Amino acid sequence: MSDAIRHLTLANGLHLTLRHAPRLKRAAAALRVHAGSHDAPARWPGLAHFLEHLFFLGTARFPLDDGLMRYVQGLGGQVNASTRERTTDFFFEVPPPALAGGLERLCQMLVEPDFSLERQRREREVIHAEFIAWSRNPEAQRQFTLLQSVSARHPLSAFHAGNRYSLPLESPAFQQGLRQFHQCHYQGGQLTLSLVGPQSLDELAQLGRRYGELFAQGTGTVRDRPPALLEAPLRQPTAWGARHDWLFAHDSVPQGAEQALELLLVQLNDSRPGGWLDALRKRGWLQDCKAQQLHAHAGQLLWHVQLQLSDEACLTETRELLHGWLGFLRRQDSKRLNERFARLQQRRAQAASALELAQRDSADRPFTGLTAQGLAAFEALLDDLPTTPIGDWQLPPEEALLATAPTTNGASLPDGLVIDGCLPPSRQFAALDLRWHVRSPVRQRLRTVLEHSLRPLRERAGPAALQLDFEARGEYWQLHLAGHPLAVVTASQEALTLLRAPAEAHWHAPTAAEAPLIPIRALLKALPDAVLMGETQPLPACIADQAQLDRLWQQARWQGLAQGFDSSQQWALGGALQGLMGQPVEPSPARPIQGRHWRQITTSGSEPALLLFCPLPADLQAAGRLLAHLLQGPVYQRLRVELQLGYAVFSAFRQIEGYGGLLFGVQSPHASHPQILGHLLDLLRQGVALAPASRTQLADQFEETAMSNADVAQWAWQAHTAAHNADLSFMRRSILNVGQVQLDELLQQLIDASHGWLCLANAAAPNSEWR
Fold this sequence. Notes:
Structural class: alpha+beta
Strand order of the largest sheet: 1-2-6-3-5-4
CATH topology of the largest domain: Cytochrome Bc1 Complex, Chain A, domain 1
Number of helices: 24
Radius of gyration: 27 Å
Number of strands: 20
Distance between the termini: 57 Å
Strand content: 15-25%
Number of domains: 4
């Protein structure tokens, strides 16, 4: 059943977009304010971003502990905000019955924020911590350098992040400017509110009117046209090692050009045979490519192609090939290109979450093909780009991952593959997980080869709304596929072929340099490998070749789980998995992590960052989930708001490689690792009080109808690898049976590390108690 959409304009000027999507299990709201960092007074850089932060600190009606963030997180939902150059976005996703409560809190906090000076001082320090992390992050600085390529008169080239010195809170003029910015832009004529969910359009409209009318009446603000992006030829940034950024700027594009650019970027990111990326790959030059938009406003457009090339690559020829591909696209029937694009967009719309749909609707960029206006803008965009007649090009074939019927011969599923029933086939979402235990240390040499072999398929998977991950963790290789069932079937057959026998070019392909991560993200990336606690084995002196890979596959032991496939799709999957490498093995519970363990992880940033993972045995995981649920608010309140340790503070229950436990994370610009750990332990020693409503609230999150399809699939896979009970109703009942005494006992066990601690940090262990 297709979505139904309605557009309304309220009496106060607010534009309301409603989408009834019966397939969805959650509802979402996205509110776009048509004002951002470039609209703030130039004398106070960061004012718009600072205001966005202030909104989340609570109001008289909804204080911090009952505000939007705490409300949504308590329901297991998602909430966030973002300040861009000309827009500010607020968005959340919750179970459908909670949409009204979330919408009331969102609108109320934007209408009546608390501007008390004490709150402003605390939040300015958080903004300053973000600024420090931003200034130390190489990738953020590279992005900032890109924007310096336009005219110095354009606001894109200015500083807008905000810090302790650009936000003079004691100045009456600043306080007046803050309130004027809020009054001018947070009114009906400047707002677009999008609501998405399984509710009827009438029900969504009633909610939208009820809370949208809280905003003052107004009209859209008339802005001066920004200075030209180009007052001279665009300054192309210098290369960063193997990375090259090629910028493209347009000062006067027709309406619809932003959507048209999305179609163009799909063509530029397509690495299938026939296109320019395929030509680079055949020459052995291509390591990675990403083409993306940087800025769009008032007829101006800035975008770039980010390339990572091998040392042997010829930059001149690479650029000529790009221009040749652009020329080829210019000569194509744009309607045909748009038909292909529309099929991709349709699949993305079918797979999108409520939150994704709401965000796209609030930005007036739904998952559809281009209109006639958009097609005209696409042709105008191509006319404004450099082209050459170089190259022998052809459009890639139709994408097999979008097929609506099986493309493989059917067969019985392989012995050992478990079919799980947590995810009903009616969801039109399936997942396949395969995990090989590969003991030989030679796997470390072959990992890169396999990743290179899978890369073209992974590049196709993203636009087709298919998740494809291949990871090496400890002694395991893991393949994960999730998306439309037929896409999973098709991709699984292709992936196994690529893993079984990589093409010759992949055996010697150079490895692309990964963008550096901020410290806390680097620790999160290292966590799964650390949890498995595999011992480092010396690499044998051998040459990685197909014979070595064949031996590894023969010796490998695999376990697998398939979810969301109906009987006919299971038959097709069986055909795709013929010749699955290795021998099946039964899953076994993960071995306990005993004692305190400290793992030092090298990160690119210098700010102290720490993760503390406290694993729990299966019989304590219901209590652990409830404890994590109760701790989430106090951890944020104490460490983020009161102590102001930094902007990256979180706590949650996580399942990682078959281990379930509580995870705490902090990155701080000023607190040391022992201080961070001390603050965490002090908080745990304060205890928690169980409210029956909290227990019910958490238990309700373990209904299949309340969980995203991806979360259900992940739940079942983690239960499978740990050999735990995957029945969601069992977890619900277990949570409802947890009492205060159990929580108190578990809290003390956490403090004592009775079930083990695993601490990841970008520093050495503080003392000898860690081993």
